[in-house]
Amino acid sequence: MERLFAYSAEVLSFARPDSGPPPPAPDATDLERHAQRALRLARAAQKPFLVLLGLGSGALAAALAQDLPAGVRLLACTLRPEGAAALRRNKALAWWTPECRHALVADTSPWALLTLLDLAGATAETACLVLNPETPEPERSRLAALQRTLAAARPLLVPALDPSQAPPLSAAAILRPDEPDLDQFFAQFPAWLAELAVVWDAEQIPLRRFPCAPPLRQTARPLAGDFSAQRNAMLGLCQGEWAFFLDADESLTPADWQRIPGLCGQKDAAGWHFPRLTFYPDQGQCRMGLGLWPDYQLRLFRRSAGLAFLHPVHERLTGLDGPEALALDLALRHHTHLRKRPEDIRAKLAVFDQAGGLRHTLSADYPRLPLALLEPAPRGAAVRGLLLPSS
User: Measuring CA to CA, which residue among 381, 266, 254 is closest to residue 325?
Assistant: First the structure.
């Protein structure tokens, strides 16, 4: 449980002060009733994890941490790190220690909770899911939705596939000629790709040549504050049956590139979301917590007639012809803090502000953990996936 303790402790250290009073503890009769119900469910399920969704006053988690059988681990989840931090200050989480077999799982993002549970080995097959009756709204509704997703999502194990046996795949990108480390970006794309399609934010295609193994298709058009229009022009260049796009500050490892054809050959999913590891402040650490991780990105999808990106900024792909899935153990590497100066990042955020009418800020510091605690561990060449239920 070292990973979960380190993660939640870091999140709690950045949590905003909780302005409201903690929820009142249930009376002894109600607490006993809630605890006995959870224990009955755990015994009937005969699974190694009991996932408690919501902390409330912390009383039920404390009771279960004391009374669960030795073979069952409690994972107490919350989407309110500020509330968990207040409970910790008030000694209501005394059971939560680095040495304890139980763990607190805290973040503001349901996707972070799902991914952390997966990293701990707690899935629909291995965990009994219990919604804490103390959990107040709106957290209760969000955790209930997570419970439904965990119960309905279908695990996938996608075997590796030789690229010659997979549907043709177009890689794609929208780029600026002044992006740093463009040679490194181009050099990562393997020769087996059908093509690399690039739309330049410029009046004309740059004259310089880049180290690119697959065939290169290029066009140039000014961004003009509309990222969706640029992405749609990128789609128009692609000719493969599938498309996969990266930003200029992103990469895959060579080993993970070899796992992509299997996803294209998988029949159940029309699109794949990838977790993204954002290195900060150096190559050995990554941003996390408070929505910064797992930062799932829909990047690989089967091309179809109705596909289109919407919204000038934070563009969203619509029109997928089929279900979507998470690639749980295949992560994008995001190098923006390593390759760009803070003033360059602020300039990019200013473009987002102008395009979307929003305000983006660059913080002085971010919660972070060593890469080894966040990086998913692949089990061979296959990809562990999760087919999401239709919304």
Answer: 266
Q: What pLDDT sits at residue 380?
A: 81
* CB burial string 194-216: b at 16+ within 10 A, e below: bbbbbbbbbeeebeeebebebee
What's the one-letter identity of residue 111?
W
Please give the model's pTM, rounded to 2 decimal places. 0.92
Preceding amide of 281 cis, omega within 30? yes
Mean pLDDT, rounded, for 22-44: 93
Q: Which regions of 240-370 does DSSP assign to beta strands (E)? A: 242-245, 250-251, 271-274, 276-278, 285-287, 297-302, 308-310, 316-318, 324-327, 332-334, 368-370
Average pLDDT, the chain: 93
Say which DSSP state 279 is in. Answer: B
- What's the CA gap between 226 and 309, in Å, rounded? 10
- What pLDDT, on a 0 to 100 scale, did the predictor assign at position 112? 98
What is the rounded average pLDDT of the residues 87-95? 94
Pairing of strands 332-334, 276-278: parallel
Rounded Cα–Cα distance for residues 29 and 44 (Å): 23
